[in-house]
Amino acid sequence: MPLTKQVFRFLYYKHERRKFFRELRIRRTQNKLIQKQFNPDARNVIIFFVPGADLLTGRDNISGGVLSIASLYNESKDLSTIHDAQVIMCTFPGQPLLLKHLNFQNDITVYRTSLVFRYFHKIEKLTVHIPELFVGTMATGIEADLKKMRKIPHLHINILNQNVRLMPKPEIIDDLKNIADKVTITTAHNKYCTPDLRNYYGVPLHHYSTFASPERYKFTSYAEKANLLLLSPDDPEKNATVKELLKKEMPDLEVRVIKNLKYEEYKDLISRARWSITFGEGLDFYFIEPVFSGAVSFAIFNELFFTPPFKNLRTVYKNYTDLIGDLPNALKSLDREAVFRDQNKVEFDLCADLYSYQRYKDNIRKFYQGDYTYK
Q1: Is there a single domain that holds both residue 166 and residue 282?
Q2: 170 and 302 assigned to the same domain
Q3: Are 127 and 47 in contact, with CB atoms under 8 Å apart?
Q4: pTM reported for the whole predicted model
Q5: How far apart are CA 357 and CA 303, in angstroms?
Q6: Are residue 69 and residue 186 in the same domain, yes or no?
Q7: What is the tens place of the pLDDT at every residue in 61-112?
């Protein structure tokens, strides 16, 4: 951005002045902490890119993607004997700076990329984990940092495919091959880790899965739960329709949209809820986590994310019209302890078959060993 435009924005917009002074404090803190946390002589470095802070508030935004990246970061740190690297988290270049995620429990300091390249002055090998939504702007949006990356003898760019709908086209991935000597893709869902997609993208494809697994949640029984239905925040219009419908059909049922919660508060809430509806990807955290907490989850079948067995579930519908048309009847018919327990078990078993924490850890270890699902 030209200097004159920067000055104008600083003088005209209050949030720009707040951002300037906020980031000044963040930079000073980062400069101190990096010396305490990392060895400047490291020759092998692993970077996890995350979205930056909200431009207006300076706060971090919680999402399943950010939680997943934080989990991958922690698991990668525990594998130091495998990769022998310093593992660091950075805001994607050009995004508002962030020092720490405050919406979930963690001890991860977030740094700016320019500081990383200045501090680690002997890097010979760099592995960069980049969320799929940033890949399209990587070659053009971070030129200064990209020049420093190009000078590193061994550069490995790994695309974190957390949502296949956000994946860049193969030609954009081909452009990365001109930047890095190694490009790979890792996936969060089984559905988009296949031989066909490996051939389509033209780079090695490896399945990570996610950190979600039964033992990470508080499971409560039907009798322990409140008469509460939770809605994912993905589609306000659909949520409004559901709330209006259930207010008429089931006035004693509390309906609540999940929002403005820290992750630990959210986990407590889903342990108390009897029902959950997601209007997001379908097989997402708003479906899986309530199920692992003892709830019955509803969704619309999305073939990009759900595996075929989910298509036969009583609570997974072909489309929104079918879901709305059947929802009151489904809730009433399932709202008996034995029936509810059986429905949760069917959903629980399907999810548990896909999401195992030990398998997740093993998959991450295999990645750093170069043992990819599809080479």
Answers
A1: no
A2: no
A3: yes
A4: 0.87
A5: 24
A6: yes
A7: 888 889 999 999 999 999 999 999 999 999 998 889 999 999 999 999 999 9
